[in-house]
Amino acid sequence: MQYIRAASVLQLLLGNIGRPGGGILALRGHASIQGSTDIPTLYNLLPGYIPMPHAHPEEDLDKFVAGSSTDKGYWGNMRSYLVSLLKAWWGDAATAQNDFCFGYLPRLTGSHSTYETVQAQMEGQVKGYFVVGENPAVGSANAKMQRLGMAALDWLVVRDFSLIESATWWKDGPEIESGELTTGDIGTEVFFFPAAAHTEKSGSFTNTQRMLQWHHQAVDPPGDARSELWFYYHFGRIIRQKLAGSGDPMDRPLLDLTWDYPTAGPVAEPDADAVLAEINGRNAKGEPLASYEQLSDDGSTACGCWIYCGVYTDGVNQAARRTSAKEQSWVAPEWGWAWPANRRIIYNRASADPDGQPWSPRKALVWWDAEQEKWVGHDIPDFTASKPPWHQPPDDATADEALSGTDAFIMQADGKGWLYAPAGLTDGPLPAHYELQDSPFPNLLYPQQRNPVRQVLPGEHNRYHPSPSEPESAVLPYAITTYRLTEHHTAGGMSRWLPYLAELQPEMFCEVSPALAAERSLEHLGWATIITARGVIEARVLVTDRIPPLRIQGRTLHQIGLPYHWGPNGYTRGDAANELAAIALDPNSHIQEVKALSGDIRPGRRPRGAARAELVAEYQRRAGITPQTGTEVRDGR
Amino acid sequence: MAGDPRLLLEADGDPASASGYPEHPPRMGFFTDTSVCIGCKACEVACKEWNHVPEDGLNLTGMSYDNTGGLGADTWRHVAFIEQPLRVGPPDGAHDGAAAGGAGGGVRWLMSSDVCKHCTHAACLDVCPTGALFRTEFGTVVVQEDICNGCGYCVPACPYGVIDQRKDDGRVWKCTCATTGSARARSRPAPRPARPTPSSSARWMSCGNGPMRGWTSCTAPGLPTHVCTAGTRTTGWAGTGRSSCCSTSPMYTVCRRTRW
Q1: Cα gap A412→A436, rounded to integer Å
Q2: Residue A48, in any domain of the structure
Q3: CATH number of the domain where residue A489 is located
Q4: Could you tell me the CATH number of the domain that includes residue B17?
Q5: Shortest Cα distance from B102 to chain A (angstroms)?
Q6: In this structure, is residue A224 part of a structural domain?
Q7: Over 80: is that where the pLDDT of A395 sits?
Q8: CB-based contact B62 A545, cutoff 8 Å
Q9: Which of A4, A50, A211, B3 is least surrounded by Cβ atoms within 10 Å, i.e. has the fewest?
Q10: Does a structural domain hold residue A182?
Q11: Is the pLDDT of residue A123 over 90?
Q12: Residue A525 contacts B, CB cutoff 8 Å
């Protein structure tokens, strides 16, 4: 989070926001991960980045909007976005009299991130778990805790192409091999549903540039494999059937849902186009909307995600457009559709100077046309089209009308780009440098070693390493860094089972420098055992100059490079790097710290059976690790 | 004709005419620019998918990220990975980490996608006793799998190690340029291998134009010039003094840029 903030501040200072070739584009890990934050799989967001309400007993729609919207900028219209969302979900049941069913929304009772969910599973508070297109037993930090969490459930549903590790840990996982778990004693009922691949279903991808691109089903999925849309639609349909006639108020949110998508074909596949049309929204006459500016807070419009409003303009799937580059401008507005309003570069008002003329003719994108009295350009202006550059709003204006003609950052509460962020972050308003949870070095910039508001989840299976000031930190002297290979996809479910990809990267390996190989007697293509306070894995050794030792604070630090794709199932198999990683989280995004940790390496294969856990326990003893180690809030020099 | 050593010294740089194609269309070629190749191996996977070439084993080679090893019966595309020690050390005051690397202070990672060159003077074709190897109307050199009797003469004949026997089958297999019998090839768009390259490191273009200007001559790295099968002169790449590799067929040229 500190890096993202620092990069954003730097881009703002350089004037690189809103201009062609500038901006911040995250390197995201999967296809459509942007889509899964826009229409979120996150616990704390509703579609279009509207916050999920907390479980405040007296909070109604008005109070929630008052607390979440802004006086100025487009978030001043949050009530319209939220009421339209509630109308999309609960249709005629949502009326002004019942607060548009605002009370039907789920409520937060705390942080429910994936890692806190695992902890809650182990504590017996979470009974059921859906694992969809994800393989936490390999791909999430502290893979052992992921499996132990699943072993404490009543039921587990896994949907994937292959029998991934998260579906089979109960019969052949590392804890079965070591004797820590016994299949007969595990109470979790595990359901595996084969999933359709993207070529076997229709839908959209939204990637990091916010562009939706439609993909059409090419072939039927094999056997019992089904799309996610099919699974959730029919799952909801069956639950609603079972609840039909129930007088329990608890069941009203499910029974009142608009859950009526048309289906077609032998497996009754729901129409993905109809879902996109619902997301786009419609007016009181049922006609498709063209822009979020049409959304109303009186219940006359319905829209499943306000930032996607316009993707079904004129009843046409705009995301499915594929006009050739030769038949349109260099901005290519007719290839797919980008939110918001098909604007390809957000905050593009900033590509023009305060007078509305391009800062640079070479980077001209949008500008004020004095003759036409509106903003024009290559891209669609991310600004009220008729608002002149010299516009000064009246004092009593609100929302977007309160923005001046130079307030390019239309989603911000003051219309300005923020170097200093007084709100919205759990940690400080300016980026800072903190050392890693497991860093072998003291923080040279501040006395504060680690981020004081980082999330740590200490537990028997999630021990942290000693601070660099403690002599025992020398027991785990090396830096481990984890990364991906081009040939494999995340936790391997989409690549380790494919022979053409498996043969290109056929085995789990670790990469070390010739100097570290000499120091620890590691042989090229031999085996190495890598150890942290969380786990122990083995890997084949690649000795390479590409992983050089670092010279930091006057001493040499050796690095160990580890790809994280492998697990014990599939056509190519190996130990998972995430056995080594601790759960230590960024306080804003709740994302794990797996890019850098400390550990030890020794030649040869790892111990088998019970001896595997004993080796970890031995390292914990030697490093003097206690439940408190590394959990200090203030642990400066 | 290809056995005539004089053809190897053609002065006019037009191997197609020398091979009996005086009225040939503009020569087209694959231009593989190693300076932009990112080593994604999508070309290897696309080749196997397109041609149904079998997977040939899980074998960690230890040669950087190259677990393919080389061209063969079951590998018609090969991306080589070279970890080249930097000749020049980092400037004074550079990041300490780089200086602490190998003896020379860091490495440069080079990737190069290799493939059959469909030579103008194709030794594999010349030695084939059955006529299984032949030149198509598109200029490519192709094995007819229903005629090959597995004699294997072509295997040592190829100076690039392209053609190879499939062990459980006995016949030889090699790159078809993915154009055999394809209507697509007749209209002369890019053959399959030029397509799935995210960095545009492999491109399909006219010889003698753009980046391929001056590339119609060949010194295959490590290959003595008298063995060069391309039937072309031997010169350096225009203006650089570095060598380039180019083997030519009447219509296709496969260039591999070896300029560091």
Answers
A1: 31
A2: no
A3: 2.40.40.20
A4: 3.30.70.20
A5: 5
A6: no
A7: yes
A8: no
A9: B3
A10: yes
A11: yes
A12: yes
